[in-house]
Amino acid sequence: MTITEHPETTPKWWKEATIYQIYPASFKDSNNDGWGDLKGITSKLQYLKDLGVDAVWVCPFYDSPQQDMGYDIANYEKVWPTYGTNEECFELINKTHELGMKFITDLVINHCSADHEWFKESRSSKTNPKRDWFFWRPPKGYDSEGRPIPPNNWKSFFGGPAWSFDETTNEFFLRLFASRQPDLNWENDECRKAIYESAIGYWLDHGVDGFRIDTAGLYSKRPGMPDSPIFDLNSDLQHPNWGSHNGPRIHEFHKEIRRFIVDRVKDGREIMTVGEVAHGNDNALYTSASRGEMSEVFSFRHVDTGASEFFRYNAVPFTLKEWKQAIADNFLFINGTDTWSTIYLENHDQPRSITRFGDDSPKYRILSGKLLAMLECSLTGTLYLYQGQEIGQINFKDWPIEKYEDVDVRTNYNIIKEKHGENSNEMQKFYEGIALLSRDHARTPMQWSAETPNAGFCAPDAQPWYFLNESYKNGINVADELDNKDSVLNFWKKAMKARKENKNVMVYGYDFEFIDLDSDKLFSFTKQFEDKTLFAAFNFSGDMVDVKSPKEGASLSLILGNYDDVDASSTVLRPWEGRLYYVQ
Ligand code: NOJ
């Protein structure tokens, strides 16, 4: 195929950018109160520029009671005081721009916090004008002990029922996530307008270049919100996706958001949006340029590989083949269309990728970390890098349950404890699951140096809001990684540079084809751009593995390898070795 048959290759800043994700609580504390803050981020912008990233996405920094680490917003137009002031945020946006980078903010509009004024008004009485801005329903009935029964059998994404009972009016409100994270009613026109104005308009007026749209597939609930069919036979409550994901009006809502953005921005800025849509087959609809919804989406299949579909902390075995196919799911749909997608292995909801998909033992951490960097840099789609990933961070080890912080872990721990007891097999399995899969692995403070006890995240005598991963003592920190020419960090720089220099085929390459898809050790493929062919061969094992040539007698020229003494002509890959070539 020729490039004219590939509208996905139309260049855009947001397709080529490498976007670095910042979790503000844990990035850099500038005032030693133990919490990261906006000034801390500003102080590290030059580090990010030097790393070679083009944009930052900062997770929610808005006013919030922090039941879900800022994804429960009490005021879209105000910075959480612990993170700083609105002026400090505008300064951060300006400084980001001065360094030639873009600024992307998080847009959390499926729900807000129970502390938001809109919800306070709504809950105050059944006749309040904002009552219909949220989903209020009477109990289905009362159980034998007089406790109200939720209106339907939907389960919260964090476990337990998706409804909270409110005694002010003796009704339940829908909340697909935490108990104080009420879902906004997108069917209500006034409510939608208020969301756009407050959460989007305000920040567009203050210069942001894009939005990462939280839970972007959930706004259109199944009409009437009926009971879900039973998918999980072992549970009374059923996964909320059936009633909430990719609902009947979801594309209409996204078109409306895009129109709002286009109408609002008068200075020619091209605003990008990236929607978190998890599962489903709507990615091409969401991201088709001609439809005018979102620029790109995050889907979850590859990060959900190895977790049970009914419970994310139930770790299950998986094959490399399954994972390869799941990764390809991210971008295969864009081939020959006007759509686009993303490449990521980590974010604030995922554990560390080296532990999950590489080998985090001292012997192979660096090599497998570099291999994952190469894999990501060679795939088509917008590349996302999560804080700490660049230093080859790994999961923390052997932490007792008391050290886990995430509301998702805490809620499920309490449910399992109540149902099965603390010493049950179920609890044991849960402990194994969270050791591998908890979101907390991504949320420990950033490790800037080997300084004890706070790794340069805050002063040694300050008390960080969350425990540090002990790995900072073993060379996994920015200062040590910068010093070591063979570090994961220095390799990320090299790999991102190679991606930029060869962006046609690395960022925009099309007609992706696996080589030896069935192999459980080799991850290998080709893709094209005009007359160029990229050939990648990655060994996902500690064994020696044969390279399979992409075509008989092909001559290969090396672009990048993760071994120092790479032998480009060798037909054998050493443990966790990867090579990228042009095929001549
Ligand atoms: C997805 C966010 O990434 C996650 O951190 C949050 O808990 C849920 N949405 C609810 O907002």
Description:
- The protein is α/β, with parallel strands linked by helices and 584 residues long.
- It folds into three domains: 7-111 and 189-397 and 447-483, Glycosidases (TIM Barrel, Alpha-Beta Barrel); 117-174, Alpha-Beta Complex (Oligo-1,6-glucosidase, domain 2); 511-583, Immunoglobulin-like, CATH 2.60.40.1180.
- It has 18 helices and 22 strands.
- The strands form six sheets. Strands 13-12-11-5-2-1-15-14 form an eight-stranded parallel sheet. A five-stranded antiparallel sheet has the order 16-17-18-22-20. A three-stranded antiparallel sheet has the order 6-10-9, with no helix packed on it.
- Strand 17 and strand 18 (532-539) form a beta hairpin.
- Helix 6 packs parallel to helix 8 and helix 14 runs antiparallel to helix 15 (425-437).
- The radius of gyration is 24 Å and the shape is globular.
- The mean pLDDT is 97.
- Bound molecules: 1-deoxynojirimycin.
Explain the layout of strands and helices.
Elements: H1 13-16, E1 18-22, H2 38-43, H3 45-51, E2 55-58, E3 62-63, E4 75-79, H4 86-98, E5 102-107, H5 117-124, E6 136-137, E7 141-142, E8 148-149, E9 163-166, E10 171-174, H6 189-205, E11 210-213, H7 241-244, H8 250-264, E12 272-278, H9 283-287, E13 296-299, H10 301-304, H11 320-328, E14 342-343, H12 353-357, H13 365-378, E15 382-386, H14 407-420, H15 425-437, H16 478-483, H17 488-501, H18 503-508, E16 510-515, E17 522-529, E18 532-539, E19 545-546, E20 556-561, E21 572-573, E22 578-583
Parallel strand pairs: 1-2, 1-15, 2-5, 5-11, 11-12, 12-13, 14-15
Antiparallel strand pairs: 3-4, 6-10, 7-8, 9-10, 16-17, 17-18, 18-22, 19-21, 20-22
Helix pairs in contact: 6-8, 13-17, 14-15
Bound molecules: 1-deoxynojirimycin (NOJ).
